[in-house]
Amino acid sequence: MSETIYRRIGGRDAVETVVNDFYDRVLADERLVGYFEGMEMEQLRAHQVQFVSSVAGGPVEYSGENMREAHAHLDITEADFDAVGVHLERALRENGVGDDDVESIMDEVVALKDPILGRT
Prior knowledge:
The chain is mainly α. It has helices at residues 5-9, 11-27, 41-55, 67-71, 78-94, 99-110, 113-116. The protein has seven helices and no strands. Helix 2 (11-27) crosses helix 3, helix 2 packs across helix 5 (78-94) and helix 5 (78-94) runs antiparallel to helix 6 (99-110). Keywords: Heme, Iron, Metal-binding, Transport. Belongs to the truncated hemoglobin family. Group I subfamily. InterPro entries: Globin-like_sf, Globin/Proto, Hemoglobin_trunc, Hemoglobin_trunc_I.
C-alpha cells in the first residue's frame, strides 16, 4: 500500500495546523473577511479539516454540503476564489507540505472552482 499525502504530511495534527493557518490568513484578508461574517468558524474549520484530509487520502470522507449548494448564497467572484486558493497554497507550503503534495491538493481545490462559482 502506498503512503498517502495525509500520512506523509503528518496526519490530522498537520491538517489542523494548515487549516488554522489558512483561516487566519483568509480572515485577515479584507477582500475575503466579509464572506465569513456571521459564520460559525469552528464548524467551518472542522469541515475544512475534513475536506483537506479527504483529498489528501486520509481516513476521512467529506460529509459537508454539496459545494455548489454550500457556496451559492455567497456570490463568490473568481478573483476571490483565486485569493482563497493562494492562502491555502501558502498555508500548505509554509507548514512543510512538499511541492508535489501541494500540487495534488490544489488540483482537487481547483476542480471545485466551477461548482463553487455556480458554473456547473
